[in-house]
TrEMBL record:
Pfam families: Lipase_GDSL. This is GDSL esterase/lipase At5g03610-like. Keywords: Hydrolase, Lipid degradation, Lipid metabolism, Signal. One of its GO terms (molecular function) is hydrolase activity, acting on ester bonds. The keyword Signal applies. GO terms for biological process: lipid catabolic process. The keyword Hydrolase applies. SUPFAM superfamilies: SGNH hydrolase (SSF52266).
Amino acid sequence: MESTKLFLPLLFILSLLSGKGFGGHHHHHHHVHSHFKPTKLFVFGDSYVDTGNVSPSDSNYPTYPYGITYPGKPAGRFSDGRVLSDFAANLIGQKSPIPYRHLEKVGIKGTKYGVNFAYGGTGVFKTGYDLPTMTSQIDFLHTLIANSTFTPSQINSSFALVSVSGNDYSYYLSQNGPIQGFIPLIEKVVKQISVNLKRIHSFGVKKIGITALGPLHCVPEVTVLTDFKECNSTLSQLVDFHNHLLKQAVDELNKETNDLPFFILNLHDAFLSIIQNKGIPQGNIKFETPLKPCCIGINPQYNCGSVDKDGNKKYVLCDDPNSAFFWDGVHPTQRGWIAALTILLSNFKQHF
């Protein structure tokens, strides 16, 4: 039951920040396109938003201690608890949509809140896991629409959240791709993101949020080299280049349409702000050592959750996941996501 304790303060913080405090004053912000109330959420992407598509038989399934905060055991989320898509659903007043993998069990009634098509470990292109790329994930939605699972008006009242958090790049590095190939790869990835966003919009989806690339140069997987003390400046230039091209692409897409359907959820600046300020002043969330993860392998060959053939733990776990911004080598804790979304709240809200 640990999780509900955390979730209620989150709702309280979010309600205060959105001006809908309990009995407080309601602040009116006038935005031309703020009357959109999505009834469904469609999620595409990777482990920042996957809520259970990677199956327990997959090699990268997040095992114990993943899920210890919520739902209390591993359930396919790459964190100790809830992830970005859970909170995005919460912010538009919906429940977190069902993972696509579970649809065959529950059928059409499972699609009430939309569908989550994201698979942890995937990228815009193939990343070495035998899992659906973003193009395939969008194909799944296309098929559901073709089979009349969703009516045009349901699609029209939906919001799509797209997460690209760097798997294409880490896969490229793991394959020892030459560093001079990085710039063309980033250009290729962003170009394809643009194609994907356009395609989702062509189905009739009204609002589409795409994540900026987070500060990959600050993830524990990288900062472990400096004992979690500092970020890697070389990598930061590649991240900035991706985000620069992404902004250009999204501006371009918005120019081509008349109702500004696309927006960037700036995880990059939110994460950096949390790292630099050791938390956030609003909502009073603090992380004393923001670059140090809660759960880490005892050496680089092990990950959070690794055990040897006799079942001995090959990782260390902190006492309280709420004290850490990062859960493992690359993913925020549930508390970390709350902090990031608290910062992004007004940016998010102005599109609805």
